[in-house]
Every structure is written in structure tokens, then in C-alpha cells.
Amino acid sequence: MSEEKHHHHHLFHHQKEEEKPVESVEYSEKHHKHKEHLGEMGAAAAGAFALYEKHEAKKDPEHAHKHKIEEEVAAAMAVGSGGYAFHEHHEKKEAKEEAEESHGKKHHHLF
């Protein structure tokens, strides 16, 4: 065999730790804000759909059970989306604090 370097092709291209691009703190803050808004919109849409299905259950007694199940699923999705938005809000807040610390605006005191 020759002494050529063999390049292995992998399904997922993993980068080594030192090769990963450095993400700016400002980008991170905007990224989490965007995801927070998506979570809020998802919660609003799922909540609206749950209310619609509740109305349909009353309006269509023949298929009320189906509408009740869809209402409950939509309500669960609204809660999940709200939780995701809350999580992203927390991440955005951490990114903002990290940006302030890196620019010397905020100092943590231990005592």
C-alpha cells in the first residue's frame, strides 16, 4: 500500500472542537429572540385552534368526541410552545448577560 492519506467519508461531518466557528454573542442573542418569537406564535396558533375545536365540539354534537380530542391535543401543543418560548427567553437573557460581561458592563460579585 502506498503511504497516501486515506480520507474517510462519514455520514455526519463532525468538526473538531478547535475547528468550530466562534458564534458571536450578538448573533446568539438575536437567534434566541427569533426562536422565542416562533414559540410565542406557535402557542398562540395552537391556543386559537384549541378554542376553535372547543367551539366545533359544541356546534357538531355528532363528532363532539373527535373535536374534544383535537382540542386537548392543541391545548397540549400550546402549553409546549409556551414552554419553548419561555426557555428561549431564558437563553436570550443569558446571551445578553454574557454580552454585557464581555463588554465590561456588568460584574458579578461573590460576596
From TrEMBL:
Chain intervals for the UniProt region annotation (Disordered): 1-35, 85-111
Q: Where is the composition biased (Basic and acidic residues)?
A: 14-29, 86-96
- Biased-composition ranges, Basic residues, are 1-13
**What family does this belong to?**
Belongs to the abscisic acid and water stress-induced protein family.
Name by which UniProt lists this protein: Abscisic stress-ripening protein 1-like
Protein's organism:
Phoenix dactylifera
- Source gene? LOC103701225
